[in-house]
Amino acid sequence: MISSVRGRVLAVGLSSAVVEVGGVGLQLSCAPGTLAGLRAGEEATLAASLVVREDSLTLYGFATPDERDCFELAQTASGVGPKVAQAMLAVLGPDDLRTAIATEDTKTLTRVPGIGQKGAQRIILELKDRIGPPVGTAASPAAAPPVDAWRAQVLEGLVGLGWSAREADKAVGAVADQAGPEPDVAALLRAALRTLSRS
User: For domain 4-62, which CATH number applies: 3.20.20.240, 2.40.50.140, 2.40.50.100, 3.40.1280.10?
Assistant: First the structure.
């Protein structure tokens, strides 16, 4: 099992990054918040999780081992696959996810695209005794991406989480005034998701 990847970043896309390890470029599917901290040409270390399917091998990358561990644990709940698990962490983060499950906050969980009321209740029931309490560890602050880059990353993140391009574009426009000179892609993605959940 691959648990981490360290090497030079060859490329950063809208939903994935390529990291060179031992002369081999590994593509890792990452949430926008993780991608925001990567720069092509620089060294990076990502926690990783390999998801094996009959027709594919997909490597997921995370800023911290805690995110990876939550991603893997979330998939043990019925009906939660890697895409939904990644969306849970993109929208909530590890500690917010733990808090929502510990307090049986279905409203917070249903903010994640792909999770309805019944799904949220099932996740709480199946994970409450295993996910543990919030640990209070924040991810290391990522360097801010260029102003133009955050729009593309948030848009791609929303589309990847199941929203239509039109809905995603509207949500990006709604949060543009929150971007500031050094946009926080993860925060903007969460704000855009809140906008979509209200509409």
Answer: 2.40.50.140
Name every residue whose Cβ is closer than 8 Å to that of residue 23 and which is 6 or more positions away in sequence.
none
DSSP for 57-99, written as a single string: EEEEEESSHHHHHHHHHHTTSTT--HHHHHHHHHHT-HHHHHH
Place of tokens 């704000």: 191
Annotation: CATH topology of 66-127: DNA polymerase; domain 1 (1.10.150)
* Residue pLDDT, tens place only, 78-105: 999 999 999 898 888 899 999 999 999 9
Kindly report the backbone phi and psi dihedral angles of residue 102, in degrees, each rounded to the nearest multiple of 5, phi listed first.
-65, -35
The secondary structure element, H or E, covering residue 41 is: none
125 vs 146, higher pLDDT: 125
